[in-house]
Structure formats: C-alpha cells, structure tokens
C-alpha cells in the first residue's frame, strides 16, 4: 500500500484495490494470469485479508507503542477459550473501511459478502464462556482500556458436528488453520520455557520435561477509536526440534517423539463444557498458558520497574475466566519467590492484589477438582505452594472460629470450652478426640478428601481462586447471590467484601450492528444517530415508537428480510425449504439436560399430535411455527446425544408428514457456531431460554436475541431475570418454578407428586410407542424424566414445569396472531437491551475490580 510513511495505509478505494492486487500477487502468490478475475473466493479472501491486516497492524503498533510508553495499569484476561468466530467483517467495520473496501472489491469483480463467507470460523471455545471472552476483548479495545487477552492457540478448535442419516451426532475435527490465519502475527522471538514433572529439592524445582511457548498476537480493533488491543495466544513447541542422535541411529520415531509430545499440549480444545477432570493433558494445557502469560507480564514489568515488586499490583491485574487458569495463584507465587527471590509474605500480599476470579457455574460436577496425585506429579512445586496457602488460610481463620465456637455453646458443648481452656493438660488426654477448631476448619480446606474416592485428596480450584484473589464475581445478579448462598457460602461469611456481581454483556457491534445491518440502519434512521452502537442505552429512544404503526410496519419488514436470509441459509446448508410466514422459534446453545431442549421437543411432539388430530376448522386456527434447534453435545454425554437424536427423529417425521404442511417444521441445524448464530439470531422471533431455575449462571445469547428484537420464552433464571426487568416482565413469556422453589421440590414435594400433565404423558407415549422409531434407544431417555419410577429421576424438573411451559406457549401463539402487539414487544426488547452491552460490563470490571483506566492516543 505504498504505505506507511506515516504508519497509516491509504484508505481510498483505488489505493485499497492496488494493495489487494499487490497482496494477491506477492503475499498469496496467486498465479498472475488469474489475477484478478480467475480466482476463487477463498483466494481473493486471503488477498483482501492481507490488506486489512496492514491497517490493523498499523493501528495495533501505534496503540501498543503508546501504551508501552505511557505505562498504564493493564488487565490481562486469562482464558482457556476465546470463541472469536470470523474476523474479516468485524475488522473492516470496526476500522470503518467497509465503503472503500467494498468498492475496491467490486472493481476486482468480487463481492465482499461472498468473501466474508470464505473465512474459517475461529472456534477456540466451547460456548458461552469462550464467546464472553471474545466480547470482552472487543469492549476493552473499544473503551481504550489497556488490556490483553491471553490463551491457547489450539491447532484444532471446537469439533465440527455432522448429523448422519439416522439422526446421530458425528464429531469431526476442526481443521481451521489449513489456509493459514491472516489475523495473527507470529512472534518467534517471544518464547518462554514451561516445565513439567520432576522433583523439588529444598524449594527448588527441577522439571523433568520442558517445552517452549511461542507467542502469536491477534490484533483486536476497537470501534470509533484508533485503539487496537491484543489477544496473545501460545503455541507449544519442543525445546529441541529434533533428536539428531536418535535420527542418526535410525530411530526415526524417537527423533520426532519429543516434538509430538510438546505439540500435543496446544493441539486440541477439550470439547466438554462441564467436566473433564483428572485428565493430565488438560492440566498441562492450563499450566502451559498460565505460566507463559505470567512470565511474559513479569518480563515486561521487569524491563520498566526492575526490582520494584510492590508496584506490580498497580501495573497489572489478571482476571481468571473460571477455574481453568487458577493454577495462576500458585504460579505467580512460585515466580515471585523462587525466581525473583521474594519472601512468602511479600509474594502473597502481591498475589492477592493481582488476581481476580470469575465463576461461571454452580453445578457441583462442573467445579474443577484436581487429584493431588495428578497435580503433585505434574507440578510438584506448585503442590507445595498450594499446601502452604491452604495452611496459612486456615490458620488465619482460627481466631474467628474459636470465637464462633465460644459464642455458640450449644453447637459445640464441652469440647469447645476445653479447647478454649488453659493448658496442655487435657491435650494428651484428648489425643484421639477431634479438635473442634480443626473440625470447624475442614470446610474451608482447599485440599480436601475426594467425596468419590477414599484416601484420594483433591484440590478445589475454585477455593484456591477465591483465597488467592482480590475479588470474586458471578455473571448475573441471581447467580452472584446463589454462589454466596451455596458453593462459596462459608467463604462469603468470612470475607463478604470480596464478592461482587458483574452481569454479562455482549458486543453490540458483532451482535447487532454488523450481523443485522438492516435493523441497524432502521435504528440509526429512527434515532437520528449511530451513536447507539457504542452507547447502547440510547436504544431506549426506540420506546417512543413502539406503538407507532408506521414504524411497526418498517420493523416487521426488516425482521421478515432476516427470516428470509435465515431460510436461505438453511436451504443451502440442509436442502430444507422453510416457509417464511410462520413464527420463527429458535433454541440454540450447547445441548445439556439443565438447558432442557427436552422440554421444548416434548411440547413440539404434543403440538404434532394436536395437528394430527385437529379438524380442518381447528387447523385453520393454529399458528404455524418453524422450530429451529442448534447445539453440540459433548462427545461422551450420552443423554445429550440422545436428545440431539430425538430432535432429529421428530423433525424427520413431522417434516415429511403431509397432514402437517406448513403448520409445523422442526429443523436441527448441524454444526451450530458463531457464524450461524449471526444469521439465526436476527431471523428469530421467539427464542427459548428455559433452563431449570438456578442452573444457568447467566446465558448470553438471551441478550443477543433481545437486542435483535426477538421475544423470549424463559424461566426466572440467569440474566433472563434482568432482561425481564429491563424490557418489562409482562413482555416476556415467563414460566416455571423459580430458583427458590427448585430445591424445595427436589427435597420434598416431588415424592408425593403424581399430577403428570396428560399432554406430557401423551408426548412420552408417542416416543414410547415408536412414532419416531428407535423405542429401545429412547427408553432410558424417557425414563430419566419419569419421576414415578425413581426418586432420583428428573433432576431438572421437566415434568413439573411442563404444564406452565405449555401455558406460556399458548400465550405465544395468541400473541403472534396479533402482529401489531407482537411487533410492539419486539421493539421494546431492542429498546430495553442497552444494559446488556459488554461495554457496560467491562466498564464495571474496570472500575470496580481492575482499577484500570482508558489510555487513548491523542
Ligand atoms: C472444564 C474442565 C475440563 C474440560 C473443560 C472444562 C470446561 C470448559 C468450558 C468447563 C466449562 C466450560 C464452559 C462453561 C460455560 O460456557 N459456561 C457459561 O458461561 C457463560 C458466560 O458467563 C454463562 O452465560 C453461562 O450461563 C454458562 O453456562
């Protein structure tokens, strides 16, 4: 681009066109006789991406130079997952290059939209937590906050899902780097050594194995700012490329063995969004990226402030995204003590000011607990450190506990008095008896007995994170309350000041402005400004038009166009024709029992039965519906896989039944991912967020749907509650037990309950009697929600919530028949969604936890 004398490429269409041609020829190496007209979209995409990359890098370099020079406090977002999706359109829009770039591309004989579709989707995450990290770094850049994301450059991301002819989920590897990745900058000069295994002698760790972590930087452009942040991802490489001796001896396998072992660490994302514990490779991954990231930060800190470690908490804060990076507590301690020579107390004081922790789940089985044996073998020095943290932590509570025991004479009778009493006389006599203080302290233990295995201790990583952090937060108001009452109750009681809420948010750029350009244009036209893209609270200005019939008509036209786009997408992916007049009902998220896709499909089975038994008059009254599902089941999660199959089987039967016609269509979109979400969400009119109350920490797609004017049917769970507050609870189809009812039900009421809804029974009967085939296969799935059979069944309350769910669905149908009222509510959803911008979330993190302030180039 003849660039960059002033560090800024030229952005007029002609310069961009010339630059793309240049890149096609020299960066991509396309055959010159085929430039520009004889190339496929994939190749042209690469040429265009190479040009956009120049703009990104120019602004990236200026931002990073400025930050290096200004030396502000940085936040480092440590996350095992960043679910980025595609980058081209986002980069072009954020850099405000869309106009001239489209023109240049047109001149070359191509279309920007087609090129956007040629990009591979960067799926380095499972679902909500990974996508949240991606939204957060977008907002950090947009708010000019000095901050980097740190994670793993997985060679294979989230598996690709195919659905076979019988309706089974099939998992295929996600080979996303085959065409190269134009958005990353390899940094072969930035490497760190990461050790594993070995021994500890007098506090000195000698690892038996070492690998190299190599940095790749991914520039993250903000919107309406010149700030471009950074996502630094680590790749694992062998310390020694090649064992030449082994090679010379003819042992070729051995010669490459070390390479393979090292590369395994960053090879593949664990595709289970709940549990995968005890797997040493997973712990290796966690330590690998955490150690590289902290070493990197400390190295830069030392360059500026050699020796002045007390200053570290004023220059850096690490936000730990769930427990996945919580080995950071021990690693920061190790580096400060063993490498930098600090004493324990100084290091511990610094550590506790430099780390913060976000929890994303209350499901007990999803809380990471590492067997001491596994962690101690892989990271022996870290085990020592964790052990000492555990001791010191419990010691620090002793006085409090003693006081508590003394003040509750009934709870701990004679013993407490004795323990508090004078001398050692009794001690000997009592040797066999438990010390009441020790007993009371047990529940605070970071290292505890494994409830599932005798004599096998585990490290509770969430407890380690809570103790090592300056702040602990949940991700929605209700979730932040629940963690204080349940999993962290004891910790909350002794340090209430640490606990906070930070309700999640999503970037309004990707999730409204860029994915729904027609709606965005209508909003901008109506509000008279596009400032809402960064100031989403301005969306509230739409409220005054909610009753305006002319505006409603425009709103409907836009929604209809999005439904058409969605229908085309499904046609091209699955060959299925979807009519665009019915209500578009969407449930897209990971497949989980707690998310209750089962409840949705059961109600659809009953709907099918109703259609089959309806008179022509009754049929004429029915509200036609298209039901769309999408989501991946973890590969070893059998119940989830059966639900996927059930949805597909029901869809196959319903869609081919001539009695049904356009009254009901059920599709399961294979391989749900970020770029599909960008089409599904704008096209949806109703979305389902129907988790058992108290189980979904927040949910974030609910926010995306709300922004796009999609109504919600949902439980009072996670962020649904706050969305209802912002958009009007009367505008949401709320149903089901709430979080306080659920435990009461589980413990008592269910035992007497026999009031199955006859429609629920009918739906199950249809499965049992073979309407969808495979009765044997679906047998245990059916039994799992049959409360009567076993008091442990139906943990997620599908049966007792069914009746109220059906009531809410009836309301949906009724309201859809009144298009003006439906549209009015749709407008109110978008108008009320301003709070759910990740800019708001990140601003709160910055002010209330991180103490990081914007640093913008003049
Ligand atoms: C753990 C151990 C071993 C292997 C994998 C994992 C693992 C990986 C991913 C555990 C959990 C996850 C992802 C969890 C997740 O996505 N949680 C969601 O986070 C969202 C953002 O806060 C919330 O909105 C959702 O409610 C929550 O389910």
UniProtKB/TrEMBL annotation:
Residue ranges the record marks as coiled coil: none
Matching InterPro entries: Glycg_phsphrylas, Glyco_trans_35, Pyridoxal_P_attach_site
CDD domains for the chain: GT35_Glycogen_Phosphorylase
Entry EC number(s): 2.4.1.1
Biased composition, class Acidic residues, residue ranges: 424-435
Region Disordered: start-end pairs: 413-435
PROSITE patterns per the UniProt record, alphabetical: PHOSPHORYLASE
Family according to the record: Belongs to the glycogen phosphorylase family.
Reactions catalysed, as given in the entry: [(1->4)-alpha-D-glucosyl](n) + phosphate = [(1->4)-alpha-D-glucosyl](n-1) + alpha-D-glucose 1-phosphate
Pfam families per the UniProt record, alphabetical: Phosphorylase
Cofactor(s) needed by this chain: pyridoxal 5'-phosphate
Protein's UniProt name: Alpha-1,4 glucan phosphorylase
Keywords associated with the record: Carbohydrate metabolism, Glycosyltransferase, Pyridoxal phosphate, Transferase
